[in-house]
């Protein structure tokens, strides 16, 4: 049975990116039609060690503007994906060897730091963000892993600290689901509004 989704309702909240998971072992595996959404929202294909030709086919088929790579994709692999943003995912728990990022610097547009767990993404809990104190790069990154409404104060605190200097975006997913693929629009809107209020206070 296919999972339900409410893509259009999520799109009305005007996220910068909207992800579609093309990993057949995921409960959120997407094999449907993407409805018309505002052009301001970048469509992201999420892949895990997928064959390069299939990634390119999905980019063409769904008119993707970005890919998020959750597997063991090499720098050479990443460098062969053209004309879309490449977001390479690295999993962290309590420590991380940032040296592994260096070969990806020139072939990826962004890094994404997620929580290390049994699954490639969607583990539902946060990693120790203090690890990012040692982030050696100037490449912007996405912060991911178990971020929900209960984490909003921690997120706001993190965004005021030096290690968040290159935090480009927050990647949220499982903590806002009613069931895999079906998002809780009310909670998403609350999260968005709390971030917006904090940002407004910070700039005033």
UniProtKB/TrEMBL annotation:
Tagged with keyword GTP-binding: no
Gene Ontology molecular functions: phosphoribosylanthranilate isomerase activity
Alphabetical keyword list: Amino-acid biosynthesis, Aromatic amino acid biosynthesis, Isomerase, Tryptophan biosynthesis
Cross-referenced InterPro entries: Aldolase_TIM, PRAI_dom, RibuloseP-bd_barrel, TrpF_fam
Pathway assigned to this chain's UniProt record: Amino-acid biosynthesis; L-tryptophan biosynthesis; L-tryptophan from chorismate: step 3/5
EC top class, as a word: isomerase
SUPFAM superfamilies attached to this UniProt entry: Ribulose-phoshate binding barrel
EC number: 5.3.1.24
Domain N-(5'phosphoribosyl) anthranilate isomerase (PRAI): 5-191
Tagged with keyword Transmembrane helix: no
Gene Ontology biological process: L-tryptophan biosynthetic process
Pfam families assigned to the protein according to its UniProt record, in alphabetical order: PRAI (PF00697)
Catalysed reactions listed for this entry: N-(5-phospho-beta-D-ribosyl)anthranilate = 1-(2-carboxyphenylamino)-1-deoxy-D-ribulose 5-phosphate
Sequence similarity: Belongs to the TrpF family.
Protein name: N-(5'-phosphoribosyl)anthranilate isomerase
Species per Swiss-Prot/TrEMBL record: Winogradskyella endarachnes
């Amino acid at each position: 049975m296919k999972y339900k989704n409410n893509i259009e309702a999520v799109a009305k909240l005007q996220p910068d990116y909207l992800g579609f998971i093309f990993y057949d072992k995921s409960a959120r595996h997407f094999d449907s039609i993407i409805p018309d959404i505002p052009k301001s929202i970048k469509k992201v294909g999420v892949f895990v060690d997928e064959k390069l030709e299939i990634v390119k086919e999905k980019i063409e088929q769904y008119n993707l503007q970005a890919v998020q790579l959750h597997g063991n994709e090499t720098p050479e692999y990443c460098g062969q994906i053209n004309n879309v943003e490449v977001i390479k995912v690295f999993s962290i728990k309590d420590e991380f060897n940032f040296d592994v990022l260096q070969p990806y610097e020139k072939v990826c547009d962004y890094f994404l730091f997620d929580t290390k767990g049994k699954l490639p993404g969607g583990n539902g809990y946060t990693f120790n963000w203090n690890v990012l104190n040692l982030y050696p790069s100037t490449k912007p990154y996405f912060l991911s892993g178990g971020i929900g409404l209960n984490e909003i104060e921690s997120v706001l605190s993190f965004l005021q600290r030096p290690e968040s200097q290159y935090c480009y975006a927050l990647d949220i997913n499982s903590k806002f689901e009613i069931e895999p693929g079906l998002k809780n629009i009310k909670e998403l809107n609350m999260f968005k509004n709390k971030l917006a209020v904090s940002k407004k206070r910070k700039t005033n």
